[in-house]
């Protein structure tokens, strides 16, 4: 069956489509390649601006210095405070007439301690109450911890001093009990209903209590 003019026309159109498809395919690849080149140029430019300019180095140096101050110097300062109290601690004691038996911080609680700084206790035999402001325990020298307590002026004999050192086995713990002592405000900031809250300088001396 012979081909008509219409058939020849359709055949020519189909043949011409092939090179056009090839052309547009190449053009698309070139466009993508150009886009990738532009992205690479922009990335290089950003890298240059971020790392190889005075402002970039200034910003990097400032950030590094801030990190050093926050993480290194502050850590060293906190470590020093653990080893010994700050000068303000000693000045506070001196200004308020607080006897300083030991200014070294107690970084750990030795085994065998029953009570903590801020807890209210009562003397088993004498009957007076008091709040613990300090403890000392050297197992090599003594078998019993020694507590310094502010004596409750309402329950103690008037002849007793306001501050006493008492061995652990002569005390027992009281709950929800307050004491009255003129030196109380020098050691503690408040009472939470169960025990007294030490002031910051006292917390530094007994951080684990």
Automatic annotation (TrEMBL):
Hemimethylated DNA-binding domain location: 115-194
Signal peptide: none
Pfam families: YccV-like
Residue ranges of the TM segments: none
InterPro entries: Clp_protease_adapter_ClpF (IPR053189), Hemimethylated_DNA-bd_dom (IPR011722), Hemimethylated_DNA-bd_sf (IPR036623)
Gene Ontology molecular function terms on file: DNA binding
Protein name per UniProt: Hemimethylated DNA-binding domain-containing protein
